[in-house]
Automatic annotation (TrEMBL):
One of its GO terms (molecular function) is monooxygenase activity. This is FAD-dependent monooxygenase. It comes from Streptomyces huasconensis. Residues 8-342 form the FAD-binding domain. The keyword Oxidoreductase applies. Its cofactor is FAD.
Amino acid sequence: MDRTPDIDTQVLVVGAGPVGLMLAGELALGGADVVVLERRTGPLTESRASTLHARTMEILDQRGLLAELGTPPAGGAGHFGGTPLDLTTASPYSGQWKVPQVRTEELLEGWATRLGARVVKGHLLTELRTTERAVEATAEAEPGAGGAAATLRVRAAYVVGCDGETSTVRRLAGFAFPGRDATRELLRADVAGVDVPDRRFERHPKGLAISARGPGGVTRVMVHEYGATVGHEPGPVSFARVAAAWQRVTGDDISAGTPLWLNSFGDALRQVSQYRRGRVLLAGDAAHHQMPVGGQALNLGLQDAANLGWKLAAEVRGTAGPGLLDSYHAERHPAGRRVLDNIAAQALLLLGGAGTEQLRLLFGELLRKPRVRAHLAGTIAGVDVRYAAEPDGHRLVGARLPHLRLRTAAGPCSTFAVLRPGRGVLLDLGGRPSLSRATAPWTDGRVDVVAATPERDRPAPEFTCALLRPDGHVAWADGTVPELKAALRRWFGPPSRHRAGASGLRSAAAG
């Protein structure tokens, strides 16, 4: 038998998809030791999720990753349940952007490993045992894992399941996963060697058809037959089934094509009751299962990771205040519930047969109203998420900080750029030295003080001084010094006993 090695780490992340790798990078940026466990032995070979929305693009910018990614192609017009929807929002990344999942994973894995995260591939998690001070995980080598040890044991202070909708972490840790199973499904295939017209949510008497020619001549087809039950054939969906459904709905024969990837997804809707159970947490599809309408599932998961990473890093470093880690569930569970409700409504509009036509007509009328359009666009883009805040506080508290162009002593930058070190930021646009002095006990690597002025040709900002969390949400703005200190304690723990060696001021551009 192979020798059984042991790995000791602060955080074990299970799953090296985009959510797991985003979380690993956030943890490593926050100073945590992190290991990622992945059952795959190589890179992703399937298309899967490829749409990034505005808030996710902002998060990538906050970490300086867009320069490496480059400017991705625009993803075309948006929709709500198949009805066209303009996704313009108050973000520099309005709309939707097309990035193949394999490229997203490559980008995030490179970032996380450069920061010190370790990715261990070719092992399937089989056991979890929680003690008072740690979680012990056992994983077995997958076939084809090469020289990997047959059994791998990992001891960590915390484990986070980012292992998808069939999450092993969720099952082994006993998370409740209430909701409903799928009753309708959409079949999907990437096919080479077929010539069919592009179809955008084309409704036929017998069903819904979608097709689009992609790079390299590969056509993605999606089809739903009205009234059809969810298939339960063993293994992946067969191309014969996809081709037969496509022909019944559209009349076109694609059976001579070469399938490159096949899957199906239904309108199942589930969400764990708790995102945290002691030392085990869940993020992404492990925490919520929804139909991937409009690319929202991937974006929701990446935003889970951005919320959790800095909090869990502070927890394992010993700098977190009471309740910080519990705020992950308190904030992301309602945010996830809201998206799931949005997706459920879209699934009804998208997959409903003739009985939903009047509803679709009414919805089309509503979407032409500017306030309705803006509301739904903000929800899909993720830019309208606002976490709970004191009712008498500044209107920005709990919301993401709007994008601003700034000038500092070192040159121009943006509000996204000041967040790149992954620390909190006291952003002072009004020159209030009393606030900088109040923040000094937290400028020991937890909070930076950034003095800047907004670009004059831009709209005036809604604040003069704001405390930003590492995920870009506003923790405090334009209040009193005691209120600022209370926010610093809540989000960044107790003040340092030793005053920071410098004033805490830094140039945003230098970050």
